[in-house]
């Protein structure tokens, strides 16, 4: 049976609304805590705020039911989840493995590693039934082949060992509304509110490229390196990008009106029109003629595979010009091309 959420994936250029704002999702599920061969002593549920607005979690809960069960076990939440932030909910544990990072909430639910159902709810009363529905359910994940309820076309994969967890793709930025498409298993890697925030590129971010509007930068690019190979969950080398905007970047030092980010996403996803990318703040590096040069880096995703990286820049904090290797912007002959984004190869 499939559960359909009212909050799902959307693309538009430019969008008429901002569906990624205040978009909290279930980002990681670990039910192998304390089991033989476990990496960590405790089970956990991790949340991620994909949006650009802080979210008050007071009155919310995460709830767990077994794969075929109808009884829901409730863990109440509190506190505020920062934009791009993570929230770690510790659950029951055992004797094997190491301690989790500091949790942001604590429950006593004993979760299955291989199959189960998790709901994020904006209420604290227990759900009922094997496949609950309603507007109070903000996100839902059925994982493992025996789960009787899920979101979209199929279940998310269940972990095959106590060293794995079920993880939302692209560092928890992917949300197509389909558990089967949005999750994979990888080495468990819990994140809490102290983890560096990771803002996602979502449909609420207006794309400036090819708009012929004043908010599109005259020129920007990914300067170097032209490709990267990085180990999973390792920090990338420094990535450089440049920007030119008449009347803005010619003066020495950073412009107060220019915001710059560097990020990555799946190799087949266009960050100007689709969700699934995540971006991190870049910092001013040097004046290069009339250009401002920026530098930044990020933690590579935990799941090995093929990705791409890019810069994006904005003059007003909302409308972004995305930058590739051969240059993008409103200048003559410039356009953004996914095929011109540098390749990021993530290896085990």
From TrEMBL:
<dbReference type="InterPro" id="IPR036415">
    <property type="entry name" value="Lamin_tail_dom_sf"/>
</dbReference>
<dbReference type="Pfam" id="PF00932">
    <property type="entry name" value="LTD"/>
</dbReference>
<dbReference type="InterPro" id="IPR001322">
    <property type="entry name" value="Lamin_tail_dom"/>
</dbReference>
<feature type="domain" description="LTD">
    <location>
        <begin position="8"/>
        <end position="145"/>
    </location>
</feature>
<protein>
    <submittedName>
        <fullName>Lamin tail domain-containing protein</fullName>
    </submittedName>
</protein>
